[in-house]
């Protein structure tokens, strides 16, 4: 005698979806708003972390543009210092590990010499001045981040 359970098909994941109640438009909107708030909070926390890590950014009014430009300039300065140290070591005959040099080789050609992303023609006005956020005491906008003594 054949059992009735043998003739039944196993439940598929699609069957499970039919049993779940659908979200209302109000619930979908609430979920979307919550997801967006979470995404924005993660971005804010990232910018806050950058202001803690990059010298000269702590305590400034947090403009995302200023934080990003300051971060780019700081990375550029550190990379220039790294290149100078590597060149000095090699001039003395030392062998520098390829891993230390690889980060310099990954940069776009001329990036260090041109002053980074913000100095591209697409980010300059007709006079060649860099666009900066308004509201600082320096000509053209935001002031440069304070660099550690002896840097720059």
Automatic annotation (TrEMBL):
<dbReference type="InterPro" id="IPR052207">
    <property type="entry name" value="Max-like/E-box_TFs"/>
</dbReference>
<keyword id="KW-0238">DNA-binding</keyword>
<feature type="region of interest" description="Disordered">
    <location>
        <begin position="1"/>
        <end position="41"/>
    </location>
</feature>
<protein>
    <recommendedName>
        <fullName>BHLH domain-containing protein</fullName>
    </recommendedName>
</protein>
<dbReference type="Pfam" id="PF00010">
    <property type="entry name" value="HLH"/>
</dbReference>
<dbReference type="GO" id="GO:0046983">
    <property type="term" value="F:protein dimerization activity"/>
</dbReference>
<keyword id="KW-0804">Transcription</keyword>
<dbReference type="GO" id="GO:0005634">
    <property type="term" value="C:nucleus"/>
</dbReference>
<feature type="compositionally biased region" description="Low complexity">
    <location>
        <begin position="1"/>
        <end position="13"/>
    </location>
</feature>
<dbReference type="GO" id="GO:0000981">
    <property type="term" value="F:DNA-binding transcription factor activity, RNA polymerase II-specific"/>
</dbReference>
<dbReference type="InterPro" id="IPR036638">
    <property type="entry name" value="HLH_DNA-bd_sf"/>
</dbReference>
<feature type="domain" description="BHLH">
    <location>
        <begin position="27"/>
        <end position="78"/>
    </location>
</feature>
<keyword id="KW-0539">Nucleus</keyword>
<dbReference type="InterPro" id="IPR011598">
    <property type="entry name" value="bHLH_dom"/>
</dbReference>
<feature type="compositionally biased region" description="Basic and acidic residues">
    <location>
        <begin position="15"/>
        <end position="41"/>
    </location>
</feature>
<feature type="region of interest" description="Disordered">
    <location>
        <begin position="111"/>
        <end position="152"/>
    </location>
</feature>
<dbReference type="GO" id="GO:0000978">
    <property type="term" value="F:RNA polymerase II cis-regulatory region sequence-specific DNA binding"/>
</dbReference>
<keyword id="KW-0805">Transcription regulation</keyword>
């Amino acid at each position: 005698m054949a059992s009735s359970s043998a003739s039944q098909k196993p439940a598929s994941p699609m069957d499970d979806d039919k049993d779940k109640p659908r979200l209302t438009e109000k619930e979908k909107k609430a979920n979307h708003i919550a997801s967006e708030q979470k995404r924005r909070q993660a971005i804010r926390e990232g910018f806050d972390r950058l202001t803690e890590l990059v010298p000269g950014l702590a305590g400034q009014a947090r403009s995302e543009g200023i934080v990003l430009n300051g971060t780019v300039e700081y990375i550029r300065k550190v990379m220039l210092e790294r290149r100078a140290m590597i060149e000095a070591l090699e001039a003395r005959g030392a062998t520098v590990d390829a891993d230390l040099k690889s980060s310099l080789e990954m940069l776009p050609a001329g990036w260090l010499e041109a002053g980074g992303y913000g100095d591209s023609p697409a980010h300059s006005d007709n006079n060649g001045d860099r666009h900066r956020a308004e509201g600082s005491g320096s000509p053209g906008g935001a002031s440069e981040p304070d660099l550690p003594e002896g840097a720059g």
